[in-house]
Amino acid sequence: MHVAQYLHIGEQRDSGRVMTVCAERVRTVAESVGRVARLAGGLRSLGLDAGDRVAILARNSDRYLEFLSACAWSGLVAVPLNTRWTVAEHAFALEDAGARALLADDALADSATRLRELCPGLAYLVHCGDADPGEPTWLRYEELVASSAPMPDAYHGGSDLFGVFYTGGTSGRAKGVMLSHDDFMGNSISTLATHRAVTPGGRFLHVAPLFHVADLAAWMMANLCQATHVIVPAFEPAAVLSTVQRARITDTMLVPSMLQLLADHPDAADADLSSIRNVIYGASPMTDAVLERSMELFPNAEFTQAYGMTELGPVATLLLPDDHRDPVRRRSAGRSIVSMDVRVVDPDDREAQHGVVGEIVVRGAGLMSGYWGKPAQTREAVRDGWMHTGDAGYLDDRGYLFLVDRIKDMIVTGGENVYSVEVENALARHPAVAACAVIGVPDSTYGERVHAVVVFHADVQAPPSETELADFCRASIAGYKVPRSFEFVDRLPISGAGKVLKRELRATHWAGHERRVH
Amino acid sequence: MHVAQYLHIGEQRDSGRVMTVCAERVRTVAESVGRVARLAGGLRSLGLDAGDRVAILARNSDRYLEFLSACAWSGLVAVPLNTRWTVAEHAFALEDAGARALLADDALADSATRLRELCPGLAYLVHCGDADPGEPTWLRYEELVASSAPMPDAYHGGSDLFGVFYTGGTSGRAKGVMLSHDDFMGNSISTLATHRAVTPGGRFLHVAPLFHVADLAAWMMANLCQATHVIVPAFEPAAVLSTVQRARITDTMLVPSMLQLLADHPDAADADLSSIRNVIYGASPMTDAVLERSMELFPNAEFTQAYGMTELGPVATLLLPDDHRDPVRRRSAGRSIVSMDVRVVDPDDREAQHGVVGEIVVRGAGLMSGYWGKPAQTREAVRDGWMHTGDAGYLDDRGYLFLVDRIKDMIVTGGENVYSVEVENALARHPAVAACAVIGVPDSTYGERVHAVVVFHADVQAPPSETELADFCRASIAGYKVPRSFEFVDRLPISGAGKVLKRELRATHWAGHERRVH
Fold first, then answer.
1. Contact partners, residue A486, CB within 8 Å, separation at least 6
2. Is A5 an 8 Å CB contact of chain B?
3. I need a surface site. Which of A184, A246, B38, B518 has the fewest CB within 10 A?
4. Before A375, cis peptide (omega within 30)?
5. Who's near A458: CB < 8 A, 6+ residues apart?
6. Is A460 in the B-facing interface, judged by CB distances under 8 Å?
7. Which positions in chain B touch A185 (Cβ < 8 Å)?
8. Where does residue A245 fall: left (phi above 0), alpha (psi -120 to 50 degrees), or beta otherwise?
9. Range of A107's domain?
């Protein structure tokens, strides 16, 4: 399989179709194919060889998609970088991957300039923004496209690397996940075979960051469905609401925190979002309350939840639209996609019985080719062909996967295991609670104590007391799971992928203590 | 990817679901998993090693499916043999593949006994029928299953061989097409991602022979959809009609000649075939007349045409249900599945313009791992990553593929190229014509002459004359395409895959002549 194949198929079917819409820029299939072929030729003519890593540090744009396609076309290996990381983190990833070139846009140009100093292996900076980078040593993306001869598709594919995707920003030193063309496409095709959550020939809105493999998988599914890509530079609720209406968007992928912010936005009430047929959501669990509000916001949409991780290419399970009608199943992450075998094992890798919590392990199409330059960590993560996800969960007797926590986020209090998601679900139903995160904090009596970090809705006049919140939780969960302490904040720290950074929340509480990860 | 994965997923979701129905035998998922594990253990305990080839010569049955699964489970390579071949052809394939064991059922037991004499490498015969084979040296399938310890899934997969599929019965010496787990499953998953022509949790009727990869692909799609397999031993119209009604079949795969025989059967008029939601058809082009009658026969069915070949794993294009509503597109083979790039090239491998006939070439997920033991023929067929199909066709400006002929079946008459399918389509619309085949025969004036072999409906009282048929054709096709000679027969010679054997039809006419293949 070959990531750039969609361009050939697109050209064969309708070269005049719109391929990308990015603000005022509209490109047809024919234009996109030509630009990708010239960008590929331009990058290779710099002296970059097949297999060389080329990184990109940019907000979402049509050029981001062209760049990914040009890498696949020419055999270069794409390294998308998380725009929210620090310069030190970027430098680590660039050095680790041995990247020889970096593309950066206006918003990240300053970082890129510093990275060139920090990373001697970085031979080229390419400015892919619209403003003048002000640095004469930068190459200009549009000049590279305009001045280069198109190269024919080199047809790299199969087990050739498509990209190295850095992950682990929330858990220490980043690791580069290697995904081959077959890994990445095999997973997207399997996801589509399980449920077609993209409208053929539709208009897909890219809101989630393209540096994260979740939206990249959506990009590939949309490519396979010959859909048009509509791109906003980053998540901004008002812009998303207006773009959906203006472009009559049919499908999109969002993370739960985005859905919540859209529902909370003052423009939401008057927005006509009826064109949306599919909302794929995932990357982190969603509370029932947010799911219900999201379904009201998108009246004609079918909701599909995807669970996975970069190492899985990325999708492992889907919660299908029909499953959302079941009050129990809608709390699950759904069932394995057609190419994936998903199981739960105990610490000795023995399969757990239905209903018993253990570590989720996965094998099938999409499983990474390994961590870049880290064979030992690859062997530790992928044992006997099974990716050990580090997620705790259980399967019911129909194969539905219920996530209970990251294994490291599980709270052990007085000998009882408490899964933070369950407590968060209970707490989030309180009408004053806009968002919350539950963590374990050190406790002299219980070892760890259940602690809740809470954000109230902005319009709450009289916030509930700690006692009131605890009583509210006690009505739906066991006493030992109820938070024993609270913290009220204006916002939660969120990762680029929309996950709450519990490590950050825990940091102050655990200073001076050593936390055992279970 | 791993062909036997569906068993694990099936067990996780509902081990009590019915997996196979074969006459009176009904097996649940749990039974099937246990039997496959024991058959796998039994075969391996004979001394067969991973990678060894094990052939099967049998009509369709639940055991056929268990055998295929047991090969995947244990790492053995399945070699399904065409039941319609001669003993000499079987012996060639067994020797060519170096098969160490052969399974055969009641209908093929005599052949198997002779094959054991002809093929010294054949160490074991396993009788997978219900009658007593009468040969004490035969192993008994059910005894092997009952007496063997289950082996754990060895998880062969990826680029490991799943099977060697012999093809080319219609064009000389057979070649063994190697399909790996990834080839075979990648193609089925891609077909499903393009269009879900199997009902999730439905009941799939296996009518077409399982030795042909077309029905095997349907088997895999049904596995991915967690469907029940209902199996009839071979195509017999009355049995198919009654099984559909009794088992409330939801989906099936048929070849055009079967559809025609079903529509012609006296039981068809009273049969309630309303449970069928999907009919996948393919393996050879279908005339408009047969398609229309088939649509009447299955009133609730969506029709999906698949075009491909064993070497493609097997599907390359699908004509989707909606496409059937378009009078022009319904004559095409549809468009490429999501993982396949399908093009038309001239004899120098340059891409042809839209509308220009050339050879169809294909690359993507499913492309064979090569011909068994034939690297030179593999290189000849797969050039630069493109499988050269030997089929002639053209693409329209929306990527629809129109098959015009096997390149070797194209008729060159008076300097004009005539594609037999077009003439057959015209002729088949005549109400008296039940089936027809058009070939080129030697002609002293024109080089080749368009010649039609015609079967009339059984109830035709006054068959039309040659002149009447020629005039009928002239109303819809150009004069040089109209048959100049006719031949009236009771039935056409048909291959195991349902294709008319034009080589046989041509044989008598070309005795003493040398035919140039264009």
1. A451, A452, A453, A454, A466, A469
2. yes
3. A246
4. no
5. A434
6. no
7. 339, 365
8. alpha
9. 1-14+27-157
In chain B, % helix, strand, coil (3-state, to 5) comes to 35, 25, 40
Question: Is A450 part of a structural domain of the chain?
Answer: yes
**Chain B positions in Cβ-Cβ contact with residue A190 (cut-off 8 Å):** 189, 193
CB contact under 8 A, A196 and B196: yes
Q: For B9, which of A182, A190, A341 is closest by C-beta distance? A: A341
CA distance, residue A189 to nearest chain B CA (Å) = 6
State the Cα angle at A140 between A136 and A144, rounded to 5°.
130
DSSP strand E in A428-484: where? 433-443, 447-456
Give the end of a domain, one of A157, A180, A207: A157
Residues 6+ apart with CB under 8 A from A326: none
Nearest residue of chain B to residue A188 (CA atoms): B193
Interface test mutation site (partner B, options A7, A8, A9, A337, max chain B beta carbons within 10 A): A9
Q: What does the pLDDT read at residue B496? A: 65
Tokens in use for B371?
């011909």
Contact B224 A185 (CB under 8 A): no
**Residue at a domain's end among A105, A134, A157:** A157
The CATH number of whichever domain residue B502 belongs to comes to: 3.30.300.30
State pLDDT tens for residues B6-42: 999 999 999 999 999 999 999 999 999 999 999 999 9
Residue A245 falls within a domain, yes or no?
no
Structure tokens at A33: 């194919």
Between the alpha carbon of residue A223 and those of residues A425, B160, B190, B194, B444, the distances in Å are 35, 29, 14, 12, 54
Chain A contact probe: residue of B191, B322, B339 with most A CBs at under 10 A: B339
Searching chain B, which residue's CA lies closest to the CA of residue A3? B339
Partners of A335 in beta bridges: A318
Q: Is the preceding omega at residue B431 within 30 degrees of 0, hence cis?
A: no
Hey, which residues does B200 pair with through a beta bridge?
none
- C-alpha A382/C-alpha A309 separation (Å) is 13
Q: Of A8, A505, A497, A455, nearest to A223 (Cα)?
A: A8
pLDDT value, residue B285:
58
> A413 near A448, Cβ under 8 Å?
yes
Q: Which two three-digit tokens encode residue B24? A: 């009176």
Q: CA torsion sign, B59 to B221 to B325 to B338?
A: negative
The alpha-helical segments, DSSP class H, found in A391-488 are 420-428, 466-474
Q: How far apart are the first and last CA of chain B?
A: 40
Which residues 326-385 of chain A have a CB within 8 Å of chain B?
335-336, 338-339, 341, 343, 363-365, 385
Residue for token pair 């249900």: B321
Tell me the chain B residues in contact with residue A364 when contact means C-beta distances shorter than 8 Å.
Answer: 1-2, 5
Q: Which ranges of chain B have pLDDT less than 50?
A: 170-171, 518
Rounded distance between C-alpha atoms, residue B493 and residue B504, angstroms: 7
- Residues of chain A scoring pLDDT < 50: 170-171, 518
* B218 belongs to a structural domain: no
Q: How is residue B466 written in tokens? A: 């040659």
d(CA B126, CA B109): 10
Q: Residue A105 maps to which CATH number?
A: 3.40.50.12780
Average pLDDT value for chain A: 92
Is there a domain that residue A73 lies in? Answer: yes
Q: What is the CATH number of the domain that holds B80?
A: 3.40.50.980
Length of chain B: 518
Place of tokens 């000049």: A143
Q: Are A37 and A152 in contact (CB under 8 A)?
A: yes
Closest CB from A224, A363, A365 relative to B338: A224
The closest CB to that of B13, out of A13, A196, A399, belongs to A399
In total, how many domains does chain A have?
A: 2
Q: Which residue has the tokens 């890219």?
A: A206
Q: Is the peptide bond before A314 cis (omega within 30 degrees of 0)?
A: yes
- B291, two tokens: 């398609």
